[in-house]
Amino acid sequence: MANGIGSADIAEAMGQAGMLAFFGAAGLSPARVEAAIDRLTRSLGDTPFGFNLIHSPNEPHLEGTIVDLYLRRGIRLVEASAYLDLTLPVVKYRVTGIHRDGDARIVTPNRIIAKVSRVEVATKFFSPPPEKFLQELINQRAITSEQAELSRQVPMAQDVTAEADSGGHTDNRPAVTLIPTMIALRDRLQAKYGYDRPLGLGAAGGISTPASAAAAFAMGAGYILTGSVNQACVESGSSDAVREMLAQAEQADVIMAPAADMFEMGVKVQVLKRGTMFAMRAAKLFELYRNYASLEAMPATERVQLEKNIFRQPFDEIWRQTKDFFQTRDPSQIPKAEADPKHKMALVFRWYLGQSSRWANAGEPSRKMDYQVWCGPAMGAFNEWTKGTFLEQPRNRRVVTVALNLLYGAALCQRLHWLRCQGVTLPEEWTQVRPRERGELERLLASRVP
Predict the structure, then answer these.
(1) Which one of 166, 195, 219, 392 has the minimum C-beta count within 10 Å?
(2) pTM for this entry
(3) Strand 268-272 versus strand 106-107 pairing type
């Protein structure tokens, strides 16, 4: 998850347990991303891990900078998320260094796992890179004509994760319809392009119990990806205050709210509703942005309310802080905002949307009602499943323990289903898939017959 919520601690813990995790680089400065690269390359070595690469339509320079950083530092696996369309930076990442090995097989050093919820976007990632971008990369001398020819024979992403009703960026798609649709698309495009290596498909969004994990695998997912439940674990880059809030969440305690990174486009993210007023306040900002041409054009009563209740500072001070931020982040935004009052208003409003997630991650007590906590209904399902067990308490939630319980529990659900299909009736207590301590799970796994 973005802003380092998918932390280096999570990547290390899961990597050392034989699982794959992605550092949540979205929203962070290149310097903070590089610091995470330093740490993970040092601590994990050859153990697999990845970094997030998020679509940044309002900050294309930042997306390109992060890609160049990944290429320079040898990050060979990224999770591409929130993409509305392919961009030059993500294509550049995929095809840089492509070559044939000694057996004449095409080797793509850089691998992408794309997380998508729309068929049209999945189609682009399952297809070869667009010709226009390959030509542009040739013109920039980033690749050769020979490399462009090889690139036409490989998919943009070897694997796509079908993202259903998740926290953060989401289209709220139901997994029971999304996963089969994506599998059909995968098979159709594999047949169309005849890739040497079969395309893969995983599932994310709404997966937080053994039953949901088993359902994803039963529908054909090759792997599962979790997010909301990871944020609730002690290793996440969030705060103890947020973990306590997440532990109280029920399935209906989520709501859609304007996204900071795509505010002007009206894109929304799914967030926690219980215990915070962020969603309501963010919606108010978007309504004002839509209705007025500038900060000055708003009624005085609206300005006073915003400065007093949401920003808690005058607009002039917020604009000063915003300019300081973009001096480092993307200096081109400043003259654009000074020439366009509407854009200036958007940047000022985005200040609140950006700070709200940082207040949550830092556990800033004076801003608890403004916490932006990305969360999907999966969190409520997880809380219901763990009620009355050791995992009910936030301090006991660790990413590897949770992941092992989901995988072991999914396998148990499958075996119970097979027995029911054979007409076997089991005592009710035998069919309870309850959370187990990590040590117990490891003993059970170690005792299996080879």
Answers:
(1) 392
(2) 0.91
(3) unpaired
